[in-house]
Amino acid sequence: MERNQMHKHIFLMRQSFFDQGLLDEQFIQLEELQDDANPNFVEEVVTLYYRDSSRIILNIEQSLERNPLDFNKLDNYMHQFKGSSTSIGAKKVKAECTQFREYCRAGNGEGCMRTFQQLKKEYAILKRKLENYFQQSRQAGPSETACRPRMN
Amino acid sequence: MENGFPSTRNDSFPAGLRVLVVDDDPTWLKILEKMLKKCSYEVTTCGLARDALNLLRERKDGYDIVISDVNMPDMDGFKLLEHVGLEMDLPVIMMSVDGETSRVMKGVQHGACDYLLKPIRMKELRNIWQHVFRKKIHEIRDIEGHESFEGIQISRNGSDLSDDGHMFCGEDMTSIKKRKDFDNKYDEKDLGDHSSSKKHRVVWSVDLHQKFVKAVNQIGFDKVGPKKILDLMNVPWLTRENVASHLQKYRLYLSRLQKESDLKASFGGIKHPDMHLKDPAGSFGLQSSINTNQNDVANEHMPDTKKTLNADNPDPQETSSHMSFDHSFATLGSEVNYEAFDCHIWNEAPKIELKREHKPLLQLEDGFSQLPPCAPEHHVKTDKLHPVPSVTSGLSLTARDGNRVSHVSPKKCAIESFPIQSKGHMVVNHQSYEPVSTAISSMKPQGFNLSCLTDFDYCQRNLKASDSTLAPFNETACLLQGDFHNKYFGLPNIEFTDCNDPSFIAEIPVHWYDTLTSDYECPLDPTEYSIFDQGLFIA
Question: Residues where Phosphohistidine occurs (chain A) (predicted)?
Answer without folding.
Answer: 79
